[in-house]
Write a sequence for this structure.
């Protein structure tokens, strides 16, 4: 289990190492390396998702490790409260950025092995802190440094705690 302590409160995740081992291990490694500490939730879209894991409060993008294989074809669905990897248009481009679904987002699920159909890999779920996520979802956003939907006041991951189950 992973706990993100933010300036608004704690969010706790359970990762699915059985279904999505590459993705879960990738996320865990970034957590172990302290990568997420000092990053922000940089994209918040009400009724859709909150995204983080790539930028500092000054909107500087952090350097990442190499992209990983997309495991969206393993069957996990982009449902409310799940955590999934963000990526570019290329299906196998996910590195460190992730998002938390604040709604059921079936259109993000894997449908076929084409660029358009690959989907976004769910690799865990929120097990505590949905109240914090709902609070984040409601913040005021603006355009900042060429990015849309950036919270007006930074929502910062201050600390990451890894707990064994």
């Amino acid at each position: 289990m992973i706990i993100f302590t933010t300036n608004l409160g704690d969010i706790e995740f359970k990762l699915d190492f059985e279904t999505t081992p590459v993705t879960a291990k990738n996320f865990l490694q970034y957590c172990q390396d302290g990568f997420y500490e000092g990053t922000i939730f940089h994209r918040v879209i009400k009724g859709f998702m909150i995204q983080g894991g790539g930028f500092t409060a000054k909107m500087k993008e952090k350097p990442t490790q190499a992209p990983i294989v997309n495991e969206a074809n393993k069957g996990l669905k982009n449902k409310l409260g799940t955590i999934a990897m963000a990526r570019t248009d290329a299906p196998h481009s996910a590195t460190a950025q992730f998002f938390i679904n604040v709604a059921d987002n079936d259109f993000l699920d894997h449908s076929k092995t084409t660029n358009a159909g690959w989907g976004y890999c769910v690799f865990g779920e929120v097990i505590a802190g949905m109240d914090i996520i709902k609070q984040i979802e409601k913040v005021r956003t603006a355009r900042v440094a060429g990015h849309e939907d950036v919270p007006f006041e930074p929502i910062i991951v201050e600390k990451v705690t890894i707990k064994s189950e």
Q: What stands out?
A: Residues 34 and 127 are 21 Å apart (CA to CA).
